[in-house]
Amino acid sequence: QVPLVESGGGLVQPGGSLRLSCAVSGSTLEHYAIGWFRQAPGKEREGVSCISSSDGSTYYADSVKGRFTISRDSAKNTVYLQMNSLEPEDTAVYYCATGWGSYYCLPSEYDYWGQGTQVTVSI
Questions:
Q1: pLDDT in tens, 37-92
Q2: What are the backbone dihedrals phi and psi of residue 97, each rounded to the nearest 5 degrees, phi first?
Q3: In whole angstroms, what is the distance from residue 81 CA to residue 70 CA?
Q4: What does DSSP say about strands 92-99 and 117-121: parallel, antiparallel, or unpaired?
Q5: Angle at 75 between CA 74 and CA 77, to 5 degrees
């Protein structure tokens, strides 16, 4: 379940792309859901995208659907979040987490969290 190590954040112009990575322990992807969450100043932490351990089914927040893609590579023990067509509203600290996880990708369903990586979308 732990640790989780995030990377890939940075500064990008509107319309650009970033790919976030979350390295997890060897058995995590086999037994737990993995989620990407974000928190911007003045806002509550929200679920961005989650993926199940059983069948790989995915959830996307309405605000990112069609722009972001979550994926996993069990051989590399890594979960990715590909972010395309980035908007200033996507600026936040992004966290990966593991937990029992329902389809609805709620922060309360996740127990173990990474350190976060900053994503800034600005001209």
A1: 999 999 999 999 999 988 889 999 999 999 999 999 988 999 999 999 999 999 99
A2: -155, 160
A3: 5
A4: antiparallel
A5: 55
